[in-house]
Amino acid sequence: MKIGILGTGNIGKTLTRRLSEAGHEVKAANSRGPETIEADVLASGGRAVTAAEAVVDVDAVILSIPFARIAQVAPLIAKVPTHTVVLDTSNYFPFRDNKIAAIEAGRPESVWAAEALGRPIVKAWNSIGAESFAHRNKPAGSADRIALPVAADGPRERDLAMTLVEDTGFDAFDAGPLAQSWRQQPGSPAYCTDLTRQELPDALAAADAARAPKRRDLGLAVVQERFGAGVQPDGEYLVRLNRAMFM
């Protein structure tokens, strides 16, 4: 499969490596230019390109950028053919992205993002922390393999996304339409709790739309009090913290 990845932060780097290792033809781009993408990110066969080149002649475009930049890439995504599947890995955090009135009023984040981009999208890889994503992948069939929810409105888009999630070393779980993707966002039991395929369905079902933003902000407050603003704790701590709020 031909894949373009916009964003080479922690999630984007791992996506580039894993999907290249799985045999896909991967082009990776960031906002600073192809010369700034580290060699180790491309060691498995990925190719560094400009953002404009990344979205040309591909089967899928993966947005691995901060949620606040979704609207900024809309003009670029507008040039992508309708048959190309667009996947989004981002999460909305008011403290970082500035509050968006429609989301604060209860509109699902991914629905807002799809409207901002002017096309259907798939939500995937947003429910796992960068450290777990980089180090906790397992072969298919492993008993403790982490499962990741995939939300999409169309069967073709869902099937493609689930294939790619499996290729990155995790069980893909059909989480329903995009409007239900809030169940895998920050503040929900499925977010950064590293659950298996057997555990994930109950976590998605237990999500509470009214409580999720409060839990999201509570988790952030705990991290800031424990480590200080701007400091990212290790992935194991984040999983323990998120599990403690729900389990």
Describe, in plain words, how this protein is organized in 3D:
- The chain is an alpha/beta fold.
- It has one domain: NAD(P)-binding Rossmann-like Domain (Rossmann fold, 3-Layer(aba) Sandwich).
- It has helices spanning 10-21, 51-54, 74-77, 94-97, 101-104, 109-117, 130-135, 155-167, 200-205, 212-227, 235-244; strands spanning 2-6, 25-29, 47-48, 60-63, 85-88, 122-123, 147-150, 171-174.
- The strands form two sheets. A six-stranded parallel sheet has the order 3-2-1-4-5-6. A two-stranded parallel sheet has the order 7-8.
Write the layout of secondary structure elements.
Layout: E1 2-6, H1 10-21, E2 25-29, E3 47-48, H2 51-54, E4 60-63, H3 74-77, E5 85-88, H4 94-97, H5 101-104, H6 109-117, E6 122-123, H7 130-135, E7 147-150, H8 155-167, E8 171-174, H9 200-205, H10 212-227, H11 235-244
Parallel strand pairs: 1-2, 1-4, 2-3, 4-5, 5-6, 7-8
